[in-house]
Amino acid sequence: MRNRKRLVFFLVFLIAVSIVAGLFAYEPLFKKWTGFRSWQLGLDLAGGSFLIYEIDLNGVAPVDRDSVVKGLRDVVERRVNLFGVREPKVYTEESAGANRLVVELAGISDVGEAIAQIGETPFLEFREIVSVEGDMAVFSPTGLTGRYVKGAQLGFDQITREAQVYLEFNDEGAGIFEEVTGRNIGQPLCIFLDGEIRSMEEDCPTVQAQISGGKAQITGRFSVDEARAIVERFNAGALPAPIKLINQQTIGADFGKDALTSSVFAGAVGTAVIILFMLIYYRRFGLFAVVALLMYIALTLAVFKIIPITLTLAGVAGFLLSVGMAVDANILVFERTKEEIKKGLNRLSAIEEGFRRAWPSIRDSNITTMISSIVLYYFTSSFVQGFALALFIGVVMSMFSAITVTRTLLRVFTVPKT
C-alpha cells in the first residue's frame, strides 16, 4: 500500500512537471505570462545573413596558423556579440586547401550592415624597410600584428594636438616588439593598417633604442573620429590575419517562417501517426506509451529552451528522430512483456521481467546513438552540429521517458490496490 502511494505521488509529480514544461515550451502563452526568453531560431528558420570570408595566412608561419585561425574566429565572434546579434554562429572550415571563416547571423537581413559589423576590424602590422630602390622603399613584415594587441587608447600629440592611437601589446607581443626595435635601431619602423601605410615614408618613426614594455603608438594624421573608431575596433579585438569576403547570402524572414511552419506541421503529423499506431497495435500498453511520449515531448522541448540550443531544420530533424527512438524503447519493453505473459507470468511480474530483458538492448542502442551524436558535434559544423545536439539531448530524454515514465505508469495501473 505504501509502495503504491509512493508510485502515485511520483507519477503525479512527473505529470505536473511535464505540464509546466509544456507551457514553458509553448512560447506564445508562457512568454505572455512571464516574459521569459524566446526560442533561439537558426538562420534557416529565422532568416538572416550568411557570410563566407577567406582567411589570408600567407604572412603567418605554418606552425602558428591553427592558433591564428582560432583567434580570428574568437575575435569576429566577440565583435558580432558587441552589436547584439542574436545567437550568431561563427566557425572556420577548410575548402580546397583554403581556410574560410563562416558567419551566420540569424535575424539580420541587411547584408551591408552585417559586413560592416565584421569586416571593419583593422589588420595592424609593423613592417621594417629592407631596401630602398629609387624613391620606393621595400617593406618586410616583422611578424608583429594586431594579433598581439592587448588594448588601445586614444591620445593626442602634445605639440601638434593630432590624434594618435596608443597600443599595448600582450607579453608575447612585447617580446616581439623588443626584438624588432632592437634590430632596427636608427632605422624607420612603419605601421600598416589594412595593408596601407598609416604614415608617409618620411614620417615613419625612427627607432632610437630598443623598446621594452610592449607599448607603441600609431601616428598617421588621423581625425579624432578616425582614431576613436580604430581604438574601439582594437579593443573589440584586432584581426590576427586579413580576411576577404568571397560569398554572401540572405535568407528572408518569410522563407524562414514558412520553413518553421512546415517543420512544426510535419512534426505534428509524424507524432500523430506514431500515437495512432501505438493505440491500435498495443491498445492499453499503447495508451501508456502515448502518455509517456507526450510527457517526453514537453520535457525535451523545455530542455531545448532552457539550455538554450539554436533550433534549425536539422535540429528539428534530430528531435523527430529521437521521438521515434523513444517509442522504439517502449516497443521493446512491450514485446518482451507480452512474451513473459505468454509464459504464464502475471502482469506485474511480466512487466518487471520485460523491462529487465529489454534494458540491455535499449541501453546499447541509445549509447551508440549518443556516441555518434558526440562525434558529429565535435567533428562537423553548422547545421550538422544542430542535428547532433538535438539528437543527443532527445536520446537522453527518451531513455528517461521509456525507463522512468512508462515504467511508473505501468506499475501504478498494475499494482493491486489491496
TrEMBL record:
GO MF, one annotated term: protein-transporting ATPase activity
UniProt domain Protein export membrane protein SecD/SecF C-terminal: residue ranges: 243-412
Membrane protein topology class: Multi-pass membrane protein
Localization annotation: Cell membrane
Keywords for this protein: Cell membrane, Membrane, Protein transport, Translocation, Transmembrane, Transmembrane helix, Transport
Lineage: superkingdom: Bacteria
InterPro entries: SecD, SecD/SecF_arch_bac, SecD_1st, SecD_SecF_C, SecD_SecF_C_bact, SecDF_P1_head
GO biological process, one term: protein transport by the Sec complex
One Pfam match: SecD_1st
Cellular-component GO terms for this entry: plasma membrane
Gene3D superfamilies for the chain: 3.30.70.3220, Multidrug efflux transporter AcrB transmembrane domain
NCBIfam families reported for this sequence: 2A0604s01, secD
Protein function: Part of the Sec protein translocase complex. Interacts with the SecYEG preprotein conducting channel. SecDF uses the proton motive force (PMF) to complete protein translocation after the ATP-dependent function of SecA.
Record-stated family: Belongs to the SecD/SecF family. SecD subfamily.
PANTHER family the UniProt entry points to: PROTEIN TRANSLOCASE SUBUNIT SECD, PROTEIN-EXPORT MEMBRANE PROTEIN SEC
Protein name as annotated: Protein translocase subunit SecD
Gene that produces this protein: secD
